[in-house]
Amino acid sequence: MFIISREAIPLSLTVLRLILAPVMLALAAFAPSPAGFAVCLIAALLSDIFDGVIARRLGVATPGLRRLDSIADTLFYAACIGALWLLYPRTLAAHAAPLLVLLGLELLRYGFDLLKFGREASYHMWSSKLWGLLLFLAFFSLLVLGRDGWLVDAAIVAGIVADLEGLLISALLPRWRSDVPSMFHAGRIRRAG
User: Which of 87, 118, 135 is the last residue of a domain?
Assistant: First the structure.
């Protein structure tokens, strides 16, 4: 009899995004398909929503699994940017300045967290959840519908806000921890000692 561990289900959903990252790049490079992009984007969004829900319900939402979730998100959306680079380089060029600010903040956060905590942050902030939803909508708009517009701008702004909040949380926290929903929660954690 085949027995699946409780950790396997949310882990599989997280790993799915890691697998979908190169699929997005391969689609862009060899067989651009709005339907293919739609399937990958929707599967990634659903796996991102349900891996955490299922992990919490099963009591297996460990810091390691939460870190892997953050890494999977980063790699998947980096692959989406790579797909845009291959298919719509002018769109990326049109948004170059705010994208460079966003990239700089991402690198600053990562570097700050490594220096302070010895590892990357995995806060799963409310602002980053909003950013993830806007990223999904922006990439869907670009890769599936072929439309640039306000969703792309909104996703970039949401990313900048989330990164600034993440930096503030990292500055406030006395030691590393996962699942800090907002800077207000980080302030409470700091005051509690």
Answer: 87
pLDDT in tens, 51-73: 989 998 998 888 888 889 989 99
Nearest-CA neighbor of 36 among 133, 141, 136, 144?
144
Q: Are residues 51 and 34 in the same domain?
A: yes
pTM of model > 0.85: yes
Going by pLDDT thresholds of 50, 70 and 90, the confidence category of residue 2 is low
> What is the span of the domain harbouring residue 28?
1-87
In the numeric block, the tokens 């792309």 are attached to: 152
Q: Which of 44, 60, 87 is the last residue of a domain?
A: 87
65, 110: one domain: no
Task: Name, in order, each residue with C-beta under 8 angstroms of 166's C-beta and a sequence gap of 6 or more.
Answer: 109, 121, 123, 125, 128
Average pLDDT over residues 175-192: 92
